[in-house]
Amino acid sequence: MVGKLLLVIDSATMMSLKGPIQSVEVSYFVHATEDAEKVARAVSTLFTIQSKPEEEKLEGHFGNPIVSVEYHLEEGEAAATLDRIAALLDGLTKDSLQGNIEKLVDEHSALYLRFDKQRMVDGKLEEGTIDPVRVKVKPRGYLPPERARDFYSKILFGGP
Fold this sequence. Notes:
The chain is α+β, with helices and mostly antiparallel strands. Helices cover 38% and strands 26% of the residues. The protein has six helices and five strands. The protein has helices at 11-18, 36-46, 75-88, 91-99, 117-121, 145-157; strands at residues 21-31, 54-59, 65-74, 111-116, 132-139. It is globular, with a radius of gyration of 18 Å.
């Protein structure tokens, strides 16, 4: 008779096996007045994204064409993108994000970042709220609010 082995892995071990980040979503809108290729090149280059995005053609209030672009990154590509974002943050942006980190995390432990799309086209990564490139980071498991700050601070700012 062959025996069966039951393997139980706790969440901390699972996070260390697969990494702490489950997925990263990067999204933005391209308006008719923008060069879609230039924006796509800036986003994929700055964030080192290899995946192809999903695109949806939309229509603005006055009939103007708008394209919604969204990248769904998982596992290694998600972690690499977040590492790249952390490496590109300048001191001023880091200070701003670090001071507001609680406001950037939702009730499901997801982190929301917004970067200035036009500055990205110029090769710079800065916070932005008007027509931004949005980044949503999902951790592998649920984090209580009191742990989320430390979790994301360690990844983005190299905290303890």
